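Job type: complex structure
Entries:
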Amino acid sequence: MLESFNKQQIIETIEMIKIHHLDIRTTTLSLSLRDCCSCDTKKTATKIYDKITKTAKNFVQLANEIENEYSIPIVNKRIALTPISLVVESCNDPDYVYIASIIDKAANEIGVDFIGGYSALVDKGFTKGDLAFFDSIPEALSTTKKLCSSVNLGTSKTGVNMDAVLKTASIIKKTALLTKEQDSIGAAKFVCFCNAVTDNPFMAGAFCGINEAECTLNIGVSGPGVVASAIQNLSKTADFGEVSNLIKKMAFKITTTGELIGRRLAGKMNIPFGIIDLSLAPTPLQGDSVAEIFKAMGLEQAGAPGTTMALAMLNDAVKKGGIMASSYVGGLSGAFIPVSEDAGMIEAAKLGSLTIDKLEAMTSVCSVGLDMIAIPGDTPDSTIAGIIADEMAIGMINKKTTAVRIIPVIGKKVGESAEFGGLLGSAPIMKVNSFSNEIFVNRGGRIPAPLHSLNN
Amino acid sequence: MKEDKVIITVSGEDKVGIVAKVAQKLALNKVNIEDIKQTIMQDNFVMIMLCDIKNLTVSFKEFKEDIKKLEQELSMEIWVQKKEIFDRMHTI
């Protein structure tokens, strides 16, 4: 091993952390609850509480130790559980909301930031348990603080469950209503997917898939500021080959740091390292923004013509650079474009450069979907269902994960803003298309599985 | 052992006694200095030290808290990081 060091490299690393907000966005403990099933809600709740508090007892403390040793912030510590719809279904007296409260209590006890897995997988249809579980989501989200919920509504193999799409729209609206005093924040803790992944470390959609191991540690990194500043330092006439190469190099540095932190933390906890999510996750902080990368590439604002191409190239280069840095890449892997969590996206939305339609187009080339978008509180359920259906279509046909995390902010209209605070940021209320789709979304049933040949 | 190596980066306005005070603090904690490089960047004094902490007499956390006090005393910024993070980030 080389016993010396390179001055420039050390200064570069410190600048990446200090000035450009390089951080580990999340260390997410994926924990199976498959052994917590029983016939009785109280008994199941006790098993769940005990398992979480026992397994994750030192999680936060050990993460803080690692953060201190390497002087790199670990912004969030989270837990992802087996979808609760599966765990509680065998109870004779299923009380999902009670289970939600116990999970939230366990999360508070161990001091994590979020706990995910209040989830159901209904891409092909509902079981009796799934139906009861769906109905519980608004109350569960409005009576807890750290709990996150997600549902999978479709896959490329099975098609899209349109009954579930309509139900999901109504859940989002009900959750928003129940949390209207806080700008409908409950809906920000809920996401619906097409092609949900089982090892995603990011919220609100993290859950421990039924194919996952007992307990693993997954990592999500963040570093849009690092990429933006590197491109800013590049000549304005540098061609796309050069830009792409630079992004790959930065993505390598970001990912390899995440992998190191993940492996060290997993080692301390004596559990296997799962995956690293090759992600560029922004925060509302100035400079920690994916939209800034578009500006650095030469677009006046996110949303300007060329944005979809810029994002496609960015996303691809991040994957190419990141894949070299880790053996186990997974999760959602790509650039995130949550509106409220990105100062540059907020600005672009306020200026009218970024619309829901443009965001939808962007989601066809990046990870993950329509994310943290605030819309008027009086938007009908059917319109929300239509927005979800369109996003599911992109995922289903393009064999990728897509998602919708949309917040109908009760009592607010286009031109106003919703304030969520912390990592969730603030969001300008965006205009939605108001033409009716009532008959379409009420047809119900399942969109048949798509053909994966004769591509065009 | 790789994990025993740390990089200490001291930066801020140049003044008399920076090296002496940092070295004294490290000696008190039984931290061995293996290499030092200094430079001036944008009118700032920057000193980077490669150190071995295998004989550290306190926990890593306490050591960093001690360095934090020195940081305030000197009005300089001091980073203490395990060397591994630099090795990983800059080597394929």
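Summary: Chain A touches chain B through 26 residues (CB under 8 Å). The mean pLDDT of chain A is 95.
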